Amino acid sequence: EIVLTQSPGTLSLSPGERATLSCRASQSVSSSYLAWYQQKPGQAPRLLIYGASSRATGIPDRFSGSGSGTDFTLTISRLEPEDFAVYYCQQYGSSPRRITFGPGTKVDIK
Amino acid sequence: EVQLVESGGGLVQPGGSLRLSCAASGFTFSSYEMNWVRQAPGKGLEWVSYISSSGSTIYYADSVKGRFTISRDNAKNSLYLQMNSLRAEDTAVYYCARDKITMIPSGAFDIWGQGTMVTVSS
């Protein structure tokens, strides 16, 4: 089973700053199968990025994803107040289907 | 509006059973693969189960295999999760989530319900 590790656990930044979140896989992951989600307290997760770098519908272009193999990155170019949340990476494996999530990175206000 | 609404959560004793439902609206439910994902209090996300659009293919996480059963009724636009032999560690918010349709399967979930809380305790 592929294990995802996210770093840092918590990122303390100010609005307007750039956020760089890391997701590392224990084995190589196809870029097609890597996604990122944002979750705010008391809310369901929201899909931000799929296929490692494709933004989901309605996601602002300040969010971008990159990476391949075992190392993936979510970048928020300039933090807006509504971006302070927990971010999860997720990988998909087929035959049989297996979905695993990383432990999350909390982005909070410095 | 595209929407998923879960129901059926509650307090149940260890060893008990519960059936969760997820009502879909605003999209052609029968065209989409669906999932259940759970989140224990203060913890991260855990995928629980998957069902194909027709219901012919089903997968489970090892942690629930043999105890949980996923099903769907496309005529009723509904997804279900029958949970038996419940344990304290099954306590979580349970979300239904829709697979995003992409040219290459991505395993990404583009629509989520608001979740329903399941508490397993005596």
Plain-language structure description:
The complex is a heterodimer of chains A (110) and B (122). By secondary structure, chain A is mainly β. Chain A is built from no helices and ten strands. In chain A, the strands form two sheets. In chain A, strands 2, 4, 5, 6, 8, 9 and 10 form a seven-stranded mixed β-sheet that branches. In chain A, strands 1-3-7 form a three-stranded antiparallel β-sheet, with no helix packed on it. Chain A is globular, with a radius of gyration of 13 Å. Chain A starts with a strand and ends with a strand. The model of chain A has no long low-confidence stretch (mean pLDDT 95). Chain B is an all-beta fold and 122 residues long. In chain B, strands 2, 4, 5, 6, 9, 10 and 11 form a seven-stranded mixed β-sheet that branches. In chain B, strands 1-3-8-7 form a four-stranded antiparallel β-sheet, with no helix packed on it. Chain B is globular. The mean pLDDT of chain B is 96. The interface between A and B is medium-sized, with 29 and 22 residues.
Question: First CA to last CA of chain A: what distance?
Answer: 36 Å
Structural class of chain A: mainly beta
Tell me the strand percentage band of chain B. over 45%
Measured as a percent range, the helix fraction of chain B is under 10%
Question: Largest interface, and how many residues on either side?
Answer: A-B, 29 and 22 residues
Overall average pLDDT of chain A: 95
Main sheet overview of chain A: 7 strands, mixed
Given the C-alpha coordinates, what overall shape of chain B results? globular
| Helix and strand composition category of chain B | mainly beta
Cα separation of the termini of chain B: 39 Å
Q: Which value, in Å, is the CA radius of gyration of chain B?
A: 14 Å
Oligomer: heterodimer
Number of DSSP E strands of chain A: 10
User: Which whole number gives the mean pLDDT of chain B?
Assistant: 96
* Rg calc of chain A: 13 Å
What can be said about the biggest beta sheet of chain B?
Answer: 7 strands, mixed
Q: How much of the sequence of chain A is in beta strands?
A: over 45%
Strand segment tally of chain B: 11
What's the total helix number of chain A?
0
Order of helices and strands of chain A: EEEEEEEEEE
